[in-house]
Write a sequence for this structure.
């Protein structure tokens, strides 16, 4: 019963979202509650599920509100102007070079293993360049997502820690064996950036647009020059660098870093309280809708996991596999890691499914750490399109892209990349 209702919720949700019949927030908030009631859970139970789910997303919601406001203020003050102009001048009209820069920045930005940090470093920095060069923001999200997924295999990354915990092995030991595959993935990412650069160049040529030139006059007219703070450029730059260091070093909770940082830069750049209020109001529309969606996603996550729907769904999928293929089950689940991780989320995937897979393949001599490495590849690379992971909403909010468009553009390329990486891992004996 739980599995059936769970599948129905997922199917109805996807149909409503992709046919633009309902907002994601509606689907996340309403459908799971209806499903839980059908399964016989009381309102008291559902209330507890919701509390646990929203409890896992509220920090990201606060982070999103203040990070969008922070980078919006920095953009108003002109912090990114010289960087944008410099990179555009360096690249000329070479869109491919811009996409390679994006990939490298995202790789470096994910050294701390936190997707939110990667998005906060890469997207606000590169988005103005993409707009000036007429590059679709979905390309930016795809490259950021791929870089995040590949780099997230590090031992301090959340998925690797989960897999290591389940396998009862050291996370570093689990990661070391995956380093060749990780390097292969990063090289593949540069190849994807080059390919997308060619695609975007041809697209712009077909549309008759000239990168970095045609919008400059209009853009200058639309910018309020009175908001620029050239004399505070070095303060804003140094403050932002310190803020990023604080994120990486975890001096404070991530959301607290941006809360405090936003208030400080707002006061320094715009001392007039009325102007401060206007700047907050100017950036509020960019954050409120995604914040609503993010909090509602907490309801979805809490109800789906706490009721046991996710675990029962995974058991049904595994039981449907022919007996003859059971010895290869870890390969199959690894290859399907992107769509499975997208629907289930990391906790049920590693703590719920991974032990079951391990029990099935153990008689064939496959160890649980091998299962963990196989499952890490696909789930990690495809995680950036998952609607049950809070950083996804942070990314699409920063880029100004609908969830539907992000999934349509990025899901298949990310899944393909994960499968190619897994094939490489099989060939070289990593799994």
């Amino acid at each position: 019963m739980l599995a059936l209702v769970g599948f129905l919720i997922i199917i109805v949700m996807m149909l409503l979202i992709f046919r633009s019949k309902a907002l994601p927030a509606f689907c996340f908030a309403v459908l799971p509650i209806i499903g839980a009631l059908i399964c016989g859970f009381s309102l008291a139970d559902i209330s507890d599920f919701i509390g646990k789910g929203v409890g896992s997303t509220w920090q990201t919601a606060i982070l999103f509100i203040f990070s969008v406001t922070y980078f919006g203020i920095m953009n108003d003050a002109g912090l990114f102007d010289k960087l944008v102009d410099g990179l555009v001048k360096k690249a000329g009209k070479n869109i491919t070079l811009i996409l390679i820069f994006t990939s490298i920045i995202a790789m470096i930005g994910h050294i701390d293993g936190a997707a939110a940090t990667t998005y906060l470093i890469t997207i606000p920095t590169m988005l103005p360049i993409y707009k000036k060069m007429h590059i679709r923001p979905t390309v930016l999200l795809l490259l950021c997502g791929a870089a995040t997924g590949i780099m997230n295999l590090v031992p301090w990354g959340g998925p690797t820690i989960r897999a290591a915990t389940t396998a009862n092995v050291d996370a570093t030991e689990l990661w070391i064996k995956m380093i060749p595959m990780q390097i292969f993935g990063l090289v593949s990412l540069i190849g994807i950036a080059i390919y997308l650069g060619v695609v975007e160049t041809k697209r712009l040529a077909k549309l008759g647009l000239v990168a970095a030139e045609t919008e400059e006059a209009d853009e200058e007219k639309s910018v309020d020059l009175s908001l620029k703070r050239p004399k505070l450029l070095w303060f804003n730059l140094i403050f932002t660098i310190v803020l990023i260091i604080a994120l990486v070093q975890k001096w404070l909770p991530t959301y607290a870093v941006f809360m405090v940082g936003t208030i400080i830069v707002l006061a320094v750049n715009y001392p007039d309280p009325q102007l401060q209020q206007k700047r907050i109001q100017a950036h509020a529309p960019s954050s409120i809708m995604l914040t609503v969606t993010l909090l509602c996603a907490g309801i979805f996550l809490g109800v789906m996991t706490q009721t046991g729907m996710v675990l029962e769904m995974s058991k049904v999928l595994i039981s449907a596999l022919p007996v003859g293929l059971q010895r290869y089950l870890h390969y199959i689940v690894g290859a399907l890691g992107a769509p499975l991780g997208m629907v289930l989320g990391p906790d049920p995937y590693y703590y719920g499914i991974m032990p079951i897979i391990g029990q099935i393949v153990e008689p064939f001599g496959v160890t649980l750490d091998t299962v963990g490495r196989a499952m890490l590849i696909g789930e990690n690379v495809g995680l950036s399109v998952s609607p049950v992971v809070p950083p996804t909403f942070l990314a699409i909010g920063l880029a100004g892209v609908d969830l539907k468009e992000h999934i349509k553009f990025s899901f298949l390329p990310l899944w393909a990349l994960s499968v190619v990486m897994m094939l490489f891992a099989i060939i070289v004996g990593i799994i």
About this structure: The longest helix spans residues 273-306. The CA atoms of residues 373 and 431 lie 7 Å apart. The chain is about 80% helix and 0% strand. Residues 212-222 have pLDDT under 50 and may be disordered.
